[in-house]
């Protein structure tokens, strides 16, 4: 449903309509470990979705791969290339799939009634449904059998494979997501990466 074109966003409303909703609606937000979210977006958008490969992937390859040529397909972006792209992007202009949640959802400007997490997604989603008094037939959808989320192991592998200096450049863009939502910074020390 999040990809339907008929959804109404706050930005589509008049100021008085926005104020009313912010004052009277139940507002909730779901967060995820910032780097796990980036890895998931990278795997999904550049591994599976042609529109993202053409719109973003081709540009990333042109910018960050020596000898890429004028019209790369964009279907083979590496994780370090994606991280380099993020370092050079203005967080407020990023695509919503990798924009820091702090910018995307404005948690300091919007008083959310509930902040759930991806790590407790089913339980937290059910809590939201209970609080909004959703009818019993409304349930949070089960994951598709084919879905394979980014695991802590795959995140560790990708982070340890990326240049440490690149990670040091990316982390500040997401530092508010780490601190506001109590996610630990990644351990990419030499000792941790050799385990």
Task: Describe the overall structure.
This is Carbohydrate sulfotransferase. Keywords: Carbohydrate metabolism, Glycoprotein, Golgi apparatus, Membrane, Signal-anchor, Transferase, Transmembrane, Transmembrane helix. InterPro entries: Carb_sulfotrans_8-10, Sulfotransferase. The protein is mainly alpha-helical and 195 residues long. The chain has one domain (10-194). Helix content is 50%, strand content 4%. The protein is built from nine helices and two strands; from the N terminus they run αβααααβαααα. The longest helix is centred in the last third of the chain and has 17 residues, at 164-180. The radius of gyration is 19 Å and the shape is globular. The model has no long low-confidence stretch (mean pLDDT 90).
For the CA atoms, what is the radius of gyration? 19 Å
Residues in β-strands, percent: under 5%
Largest sheet: 2 strands, parallel
Question: Which structural class is indicated by helix and strand composition?
Answer: mainly alpha
Number of helices, where a helix is a run of at least 4 consecutive DSSP H or I residues: 9
What is the helical fraction, as a range of percent?
Answer: 40-55%
Strand order of the biggest β-sheet: 1-2
Protein name: Carbohydrate sulfotransferase
EC number: 2.8.2.-
Membrane topology: Single-pass type II membrane protein
Organism: Balaenoptera physalus (Fin whale)
Any key phrases for this structure?
single chain, 195 residues, mainly alpha, two-stranded parallel sheet, 50% helix, transmembrane helix, carbohydrate metabolism, sulfotransferase activity, Carb_sulfotrans_8-10
């Amino acid at each position: 449903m999040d990809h339907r074109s008929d959804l109404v966003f706050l930005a589509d409303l008049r100021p008085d309509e926005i104020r009313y909703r912010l004052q009277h609606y139940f507002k909730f937000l779901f967060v995820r470990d910032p780097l796990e979210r980036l890895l998931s977006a990278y795997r999904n958008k550049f591994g599976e979705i042609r529109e993202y490969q053409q719109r973003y992937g081709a540009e990333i390859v042109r910018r960050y791969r020596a000898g890429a040529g004028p019209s790369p397909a964009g279907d083979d972006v590496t994780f370090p290339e994606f991280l380099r792209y993020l370092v050079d992007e203005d967080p407020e202009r990023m695509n919503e799939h990798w924009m820091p949640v702090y910018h995307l959802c404005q948690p300091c400007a919007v008083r959310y009634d509930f902040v759930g997490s991806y790590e407790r997604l089913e339980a937290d989603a059910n809590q939201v449904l209970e609080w909004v008094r959703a009818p019993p037939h409304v349930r949070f959808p089960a994951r598709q059998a084919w879905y394979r989320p980014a695991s802590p192991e795959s995140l560790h592998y990708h982070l340890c494979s990326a240049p440490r200096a690149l990670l040091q450049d990316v982390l500040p863009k997401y530092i508010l997501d780490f601190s506001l939502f109590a996610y630990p910074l990644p351990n990419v020390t030499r000792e941790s990466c050799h385990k």
